[in-house]
Structures are given as C-alpha cells and as structure tokens.
Amino acid sequence: MKLAELAPERVAVAVEHLLPEAAPVRPLRTLREGRSHRSWVLDSGLGRLVGKVAMTNRTEVVLHRLAEHRRVAGLGVPVPNLLGFTPSSELVGGRMLIVAEYLDGQDAEEAFSSMPVDAMASVLRSTGAALRQLHQVSVPAFGDVYLPNILVDAQGRFRALLDLEHVRWVDPAMDFVKPAMWMFEGRPEWADAFADGYGIAKAQPPCWPERLSVATGLELLTGVDYWTRVRDEAMREDYLRRLRAWVRSDGVRHVWSSVTT
Fold first, then answer.
1. Which domains does the chain have, with CATH numbers?
2. Whole-Å CA distances, 207 to 82, 109, 189, 213, 225
3. What pTM was estimated for this model as a whole?
4. pLDDT tens, 174-200?
5. pLDDT tens digit string along 59-73?
C-alpha cells in the first residue's frame, strides 16, 4: 500500500488500536502532505488529535527524536503534546504511526497572506524565543525551522513549533541556516526579529560567525545529497549554487551574513 493510497478511516482505526482510550476515533480532514508523511486531523474521545503516518528507513533515529519531543513538551517548550507512537502499525501498511494533540491554528506559511504587515516579525521574534527555550533543555537543534513548522493562532500570534521528529544532535547554529535560506532572504526585518527573540541581536555567542559558516556548509553538503536522492532538481540546483558560493568565499559567505542588516 502506497502512502498516498492510505484511507483516513484506516488511520483512525490504527489510532484506536494504539490508544484505546481515544475511542471512538473518526477522521475530520487531511493536513498538508509532507515529503515522507501524511497527516490527518481526527476527532476522538480525547479531543482532536493529529495522526501522522511516516515513511522512514531510520526508525531507531526517529524514535529517539520522538522521545525527545515528548520530553521537551513536558518541560514547557511550546510544542504539541505527543500522545503515542509505534515504529510499525500493520493497519497502515507497517509504517510508523505518530499521534499528537491537535492545536488550533494555521502554519505560518498559510497564514502569512492574511496577516498584518508587522505581525510576522512578531511571530518570528516569538519563534526565536521558543527555539532558544528548546536549545536550553538540551536539544541541540530542531533541524527544520521554516514557516510550515511554525503554528500561529487565529489572531496571528505564535503558538507552537511543529514536527520535532527532525531534531538533530548538532550545533544549535544549524537552526539559523534554513530560516536564513527559506524565510529571511529579502526580509532582513524578519531575521532581526528572529535574532532578537533568540537573544543574539546584541551579543553573539562565542565563535558565532565561524559556527554559522560550518553550519552553512554542512546544510548545503547534506542537502545536495538529500535533494538528489528525492529527485528534486530545482532544490538540488539551488543548494549547489549556494555551496559553490560558500566554497569560493572560503566559508566567509555563510547564509546569515546575507540576510541581516
């Protein structure tokens, strides 16, 4: 069974099997599809849930990351509570099943077009603060900070970070690379707000430019390999272009240097 062929009713049954206390479970709607997962909003005896079916060949790594997600949620980091997960559910074709609480809101990419001009800077300031909080509870890096993984509420305010199954045990400086490439180009005020929320607008950590340079190179090198494997030619070419510029600059041209004022 292909991921795209999964019926939401089967996901609902799988969630009931994983969390009997959630019964009865019924599907409400499908969420934005990821590259390696599909997610649904579900109604249940525990309230609204998100059921996510993932396709991964790195099960042990993802399970470790999910355990970290559960831990940091318990420490007050603004992320959805993780209610259960299993590495393999036969009800969804033997794939990984993840169940989390559903939080009302929109991801920041979807919400942006209807938000006031200055509202996104406020959201990103709060995102920077949330990321700082995450880093302070011993999670080195979120690994996937960009607009679709930032939840905002109906008033356009930051609510939570989403999709912590990308957590990586690397330098936290890595969490400044994707935002610079995917959110801040042409929007230095967003970058400034994010840095201000994180707490580095006025005082940078030790060796910060050097750490950003290494983080940039690592993201670009691993990204070229990833985009090649998933056959996304446009992203592969973008990463190659950036990687060539980084190499030609001897690492001085890290992504953050081009977006801040």
1. 3-101 (3.30.200.20), 106-258 (3.90.1200)
2. 35, 32, 24, 10, 28
3. 0.90
4. 999 999 999 998 899 999 999 999 998
5. 888 888 888 889 889
